[in-house]
Backbone:
């Protein structure tokens, strides 16, 4: 079955983040979305290794299955509110190694790609989160690490795609910025189900720049760390 399923993605651990909150929330979101019958219950979960090599080996095959919508999650360690990413930029940094010790191959993600790719679902998703009690803001900067790289690749697809950065989860017993009476994971996952429902209701769009260089998403050993 293809074309109508929901793809939910999160990231695994990376240096400084041994337990990635995006994976925790993505798992709960996928479970709730199935329970609510989104996409006829066909909700697929993908926890990406935090490595540049995971984009061609994990993300691209999942996108090739033609999901009806893609909701991507990542963690922003300094954020205090949920950030709805409005765009992904065709840029990378060679300063930050991934979990395998590699950095981006070059400073652009795609030699032939546009300077940026924008996400039309961002504005309605932001409104949905706020209606569901989630403190959220729009963000124009998805960073220069794996989150931006994965988002840039995802936005090349015709299906509605959205990336949301979540802040670190508060410690047990503390509600953080979320409504009291629900755990932060439950509150976020429930609100994201509503966001996913909106994504699935949107039509696919034509991407004139859909064909990009997959090899440009590769990685090279980090010359700073010396990891091979």
Residues:
């Amino acid at each position: 079955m293809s074309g109508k399923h929901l793809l939910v993605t999160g990231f695994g651990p990376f240096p400084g983040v041994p337990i990635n909150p995006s994976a925790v929330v993505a798992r709960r979101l996928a479970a709730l979305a199935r329970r609510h019958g989104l996409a006829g219950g066909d909700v697929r979960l993908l926890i990406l290794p935090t490595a540049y090599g995971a984009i061609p080996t994990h993300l691209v095959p999942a996108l090739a299955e033609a999901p009806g919508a893609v909701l991507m999650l990542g963690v922003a360690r300094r954020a205090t509110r949920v950030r709805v990413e409005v765009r992904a930029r065709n840029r990378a940094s060679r300063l930050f190694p991934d979990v395998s010790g590699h950095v981006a191959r070059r400073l652009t993600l795609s030699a032939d790609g546009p300077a940026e790719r924008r996400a039309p679902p961002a504005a309605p998703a932001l409104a949905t989160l706020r209606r569901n009690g989630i403190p959220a803001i729009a963000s124009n900067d998805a960073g220069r690490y794996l989150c931006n790289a994965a988002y840039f690749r995802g936005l090349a697809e015709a299906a509605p795609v959205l990336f949301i950065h979540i802040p670190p989860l508060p410690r047990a017993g503390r509600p953080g910025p979320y409504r009291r009476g629900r755990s932060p994971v439950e509150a976020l996952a429930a609100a994201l189900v509503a966001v996913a429902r909106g994504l699935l209701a949107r039509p696919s769009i034509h991407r004139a720049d859909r064909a990009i260089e997959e090899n440009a998403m590769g990685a090279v050993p980090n010359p700073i760390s010396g990891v091979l």
